[in-house]
Design brief:
309 residues; alpha/beta; 13 helices; 46% helix; 12% strand; globular
């Protein structure tokens, strides 16, 4: 008896549903298959790629505009197809002018992500929390947003406009940019390196579309945007919070701790058994879907079950 299969909800549609809901969207930044699967395992409803995390982990370079479109899209494709939750992608500056953005958005949409961030920095860009940033003419950025919206084949594909103008031109100029970008068609606004709760509230009140805020490490302070309780962010109207540095920083710390202990065992000959610091092989297999793969192997390797007529 044939089972009727129901089509899964597209990531873009699911992302729109989440954006329309009442719960604050908490979106950890991911940079590979391990990190995105852990985000899904831990019950988060959405994730986002981190441009800095991909530049650092994939290429081994700082987030200063070295990573190109192909590297970014290839990584996002593998990440998005690894999970069932929607993943938003960091598309940096769109990799060129407004016409180039048409190609960029189509590449990311075909990769299976739920949407993209496009920022108004000059190229080559740099991490939003680094000194030395500059921004393009806001009219050019508005055209980039228009091109991004025109490029998408799926109307649910989310176009998020990021402005880095606060560090360059101040809050009022950043708000003017955000308002223009919303009029150009942006579905969500993100002002990176925003200073404090009052600035966030001013931005939320000034724009007619949802606002996303970057909380960086999430559980560690940094010199730019301070840590603000999630409940407070929701209270002042923030719709989405991203944590792009949380998982890369946690992974680096864990790797250094493990390698430090390994170095000690090499030097002293002492055997260490630290299951508190390392996942088991069974944990890794479960995370990566090994049991499901084995079930498929058993099914399709069963030649005796084939009816050859």
């Amino acid at each position: 008896m044939n089972m009727i299969k129901t089509a899964p909800v597209k990531p873009t549609r699911r992302m729109r549903e989440l954006m329309a809901g009442s719960d604050l969207l908490v979106s950890p930044g991911v940079f590979d298959g391990y990190s995105v699967r852990v985000v899904e395992k831990m019950g988060f409803k959405t994730a986002c790629t981190t441009g800095a995390g991909l530049s650092n982990s994939r290429l081994g370079v700082p987030d200063v505009g070295i990573m190109g479109l192909t590297d970014n899209v290839d990584a996002c494709r593998m990440i998005a197809r690894s999970v069932s939750i929607p993943v938003m992608a960091d598309a940096d500056t769109g990799y060129g002018n407004p016409v180039t953005v048409l190609h960029t958005v189509r590449q990311f949409e075909e990769a299976g992500v739920a949407g993209v961030n496009i920022e108004d920095q000059v190229s080559p860009k740099r991490c939003g929390h680094m000194a030395g940033k500059d921004v393009i003419d806001m009219r050019e950025m508005a055209r980039k947003i228009e091109a991004a919206c025109d490029a998408r084949r799926d109307d649910d594909f989310v176009v998020l406009a990021r402005t880095d103008a606060i560090a360059v031109e101040g809050l009022e100029a950043a708000i003017r940019r955000a308002q223009l970008y919303a009029r150009a068609g942006a579905d969500m606004i993100f002002a990176d390196a925003i200073g404090d709760e009052d600035q966030i509230k001013a931005l939320v009140d000034a724009v007619p579309v949802p606002v996303s805020v970057n909380m960086g490490f999430g559980i560690r302070n940094r010199p730019t945007t301070p840590l603000i309780p999630f409940a407070r962010l929701a209270e002042i109207g923030v719709r989405r919070v991203t944590l792009p540095r949380l998982l890369p920083a946690a992974a680096l710390s864990a790797m250094e701790n493990a390698l430090g202990l390994l170095k000690t065992t090499v030097e002293t000959g002492e055997i260490m058994h630290r299951p508190d610091l390392l996942s088991s092989i069974e944990d890794i297999w479960a995370l990566m879907g090994q049991p499901e793969m084995k079930a498929l192997e058993a099914r399709y390797n069963d030649l005796d079950g084939v009816d050859v007529g």
